[in-house]
Amino acid sequence: MPKIFCTLAPSEEVRHVEVSVEGELTAVDASSLCRAVRDHLERGAQSLTINLENVKAADPVGLAALLQSCRLAERLGVRLSVCPGPAAYRALLAAKLVSELTVVPSEDHTALLLAGPPAIDLPAWHVLFVAKNQRIGLRLPAWEDLALFERWAQEPLLDQMVGSDLLYACRHLGAYHPDFTPLVLNDPTALTLLVHPLAPPASPVGYVRLFNIHLVEQFAFLETAVSDLRSLRKGWGIEASRLLLAYALDALGLCRVEAKVYAYNPLSINSLKRNGFTQEGVLRHARSYDGQRWDILVFSILHEEMVEQRKQEVFPYMGFWGQSRDDPP
Hints:
Elements (H helix, E strand, L loop, with lengths): L2 E8 L4 E11 L4 H13 L4 E12 L1 H16 L3 E6 L1 H9 L34 E4 L3 E4 L6 H8 L2 H6 L3 H9 L7 H5 L5 E7 L8 E9 L4 E8 L2 H5 L2 H17 L3 E7 L3 H9 L3 E12 L2 E11 H9 L18
Parallel strand pairs: 2-3, 3-4, 9-10
Antiparallel strand pairs: 1-2, 5-6, 6-7, 7-8, 8-9, 10-12, 11-12
Helix pairs in contact: 1-2, 4-6, 9-11
């Protein structure tokens, strides 16, 4: 289980605090990191170091918490530096956060970047709902859930309607291939969550995914994959996408989410419109299907539109900084 602990180095002129993260920097412990940073800032810390030397994996939620912590400290005039280990440095590099933070490398990372990230065999405690409403929950996948992606990768309906690059990779590599598992379990630029109805039989019916997440520029791309027509008719995909957008608004601070849909897929087109997306472009004849060339439609939703959509639901605040979306940073 990830651990967050602090050490103090007081002196007459400066009070330095080191906040160390052990294991993972993910949605599991993002709130704990922010709480630790905020507590020490409120107690008058004049400089902080966030030590990530022993972090083995990071996801966009953990990285968002790190970025928000650094921005809060900067706004308060407190020096905050980040000391990453190999895995954390790879994640910061992939997320384009290295130049946004005061990074103090503990060693030469050039050689470390030549090797791929380690495979993480996630234990049962890692299963976590990051967002829920009365009907569904969105939860982090665990190692045993990879078999679901292998099954979904073989379903013609999903290939026809979604055309997912994630499922394409799974179909040709296998769910347990070392090049595929990080795409689901610990990708620093993508957040993949299982759509999990809360009523029996309470098993996942698909997934929602934010990918190519740019935390600095505050935008990402949305992919929704629901595995069968019965689940589609129940509206699981619409609800899951709406819930994910609210979570992204609170936790990731996104200001724009983009989605692409095939012109022959009216269900997905209507789902996007119901969730407040606006069509803003057409990729003409960019898809071949059933002997024809089809357009790909480009939709997006902006920050103020996500806020308006959120007002239609009774979602709790899902960020890291208290009970209000106006709470810093």
